[in-house]
Structure formats: C-alpha cells, structure tokens
Amino acid sequence: MAVSGGLGGGAGDRQGTGPGQGPPPRAPRAPLALVALVLGTYCLCALLRHCPPTSRAPAPAPARTELPRAARRPGVPGLPVASGSGRRRFPQALIVGVKKGGTRALLEFLRLHPDVRALGSEPHFFDRCYERGLAWYRSLMPRTLDGQITMEKTPSYFVTREAPRRIHSMSPDTKLIVVVRNPVTRAISDYAQMLSKTPGLPSFRALAFRHGLGPVDTAWSAVRIGLYAQHLDNWLPYFPLSHFLFVSGERLVSDPAGEVGRVQDFLGLKRVVTDKHFYFNATKGFPCLKKAPGSSRPRCLGKSKGRPHPVVPPAVVQRLQDFYRPFNRKFYQMTGQDFGWD
Q1: What are 296-332's pLDDT values in tens digits?
Q2: Is Transmembrane tagged as a keyword (predicted)?
Q3: Would the pTM count as exceeding 0.85?
Q4: Active site positions, annotated
C-alpha cells in the first residue's frame, strides 16, 4: 500500500533502537507545511461532522416480527409488532467504545436478539450533540415494548471527558459495554481508516512518533485512544466497575458466540444468539451472520470492515508495544481481565 512518506520502504524503518546503537535514525518527514495542511484538512472535516438533523432521526432497527418474551402470554400466539408500537425510552445500555475495536460487529450481532432494539447509526449525543437536550436524544430511539432493551453505540464516548458525567445524569443505572483490542493493531486499523478517507496522509510512523523513532506522540488520536486505563479512570468516579462489561475485540473475531454470550448475560437476556448464527468468512477474515430465514444470502459487515492494514515496520510495532505495556497491565488490574496483548 503506497502512501506519502512511505510505510517501511526506507532503511531507517528497518532498524530499531537499543543500547550502544546511538541516536535513532531520523525518518523521512514530509515538509512541515504539507503535513500541517493535510492534518488540518482532516481535523476540519472531523469538526464539521454534524449531529443528526432534528427532522430526520437515524433510522431505527426494523420492527420485530414477534413479541419479546416478556410480552408473550401462555396460550396466546405471537402477534406481529406493528411499526410504531411501544414507546421511546432512554437506552438502558450503551456501547461506549472503542473506535476500531469491533463495536459495529457487536451491535449487529446483538440486533439478532428479539429483546434488543438498537439505533443503527451513532447519535454522538454525549460528545457532540448534548446541547440538543435529552428529549431530542430520546426522540431518536427506536420504540420498544416492555421487556425489550434499548441500546445505542458511539465509540467516542469512552474517550470523551464529559461523557461519564452526562450519561450518569441521564441514568446512574446505565450498563456500559467497552470493546477493546490490542492498542497497537487498533491504532494501525484507525490509521488505515484515516488513509482511506485522506490518501495524502504522512506515514503511520511519522504520525505515531516525534523525531523518527523518538517519543510516542500521544497527542495523535490513534495513539491516545489505546490508553485504556487512563480513559477508564475518568469513568470510575461516576460508575462502579460492576456497570461495565469489557469485550475482547480479538475474541469477538475468534469466538463471536462466546463473547456475545457474555454480553447477553450482562444485559440479563437469555442466550438466544449462539454459534448457530455465525460462520467465518475467510476472505474478510471476520465472522459473518448466517443466512436468516427468508433472506437470499448471508450477511457480512460492510466493505470497510476487515479492510487490509498497511504494512508497518517491525521496529515501529515493537516500540509501540513497549510503550503500551505498562498501560495494558494497569488496565488488566483494573478490569480483572488479562487480554493477552503482551
């Protein structure tokens, strides 16, 4: 994959740093004016992303064809749920992070459950659109019947400083799901997405480090998001750990039924979504949903999911692994889970 600045093409990219090797090699840098222009354009585009318009709320999931288990009565056949039945509620559960961790996959898997109604798009209420008010936020939610759970997912909530307080103000009982992934591969995946939208970006190495393989640049969002322990610290004054479920992005790929089973348990739902719903797509390298009754074909996530990553030099990967290791270990201690990234 050819990008401006190169990804592993120069001799400096093939060298690490170590005792007695002298100062690290200086990586080729794009002219400062060009770097500033490209990054400025990318940041401006990010800032211009608007809230969903008030007159056109994001489309909710399609209406279910049967009542949720809590609404069924013995001896009474299941009746179709008409579009617009039920009422709009604030979400009882949120997928709050992290970007490029597997949040879209988890949401789509959970939407198979008859007792889950989830907003399909990301409303970004607690980070970008809070001034529109809670009534506006509730108006976006799909209608639910008694016994169904309302959900939405916006991965940027986890890294937004104001989000925990705002969500707690809505409901201190909100259940919070965080999908995490090896922060190094997550950062590379994040960069691959940026590169697909802005092909002129400098190389991954040029953005991740200052002065070649010098200090890691934590000001870059792709690096900063992976500091999971620091972000979690921001949530704990508002929510106890018992309100969180931390889902492994790696296991969501290798064992989707197992991870989705844990989520169903956490939400207090019967394990309806099981291994019979999944198959592994070798081309995408990702699990897909088997063909549903009445459907013409199996359903996989969009083309942007499972996209190939750019080749990043081993020295760059190793430096980032070393950088994240103490943060990862603190995160393991905080959550009581070893995600095996070290």
Answers
A1: 556 676 555 556 789 999 999 999 999 999 999 999 9
A2: yes
A3: no
A4: 100
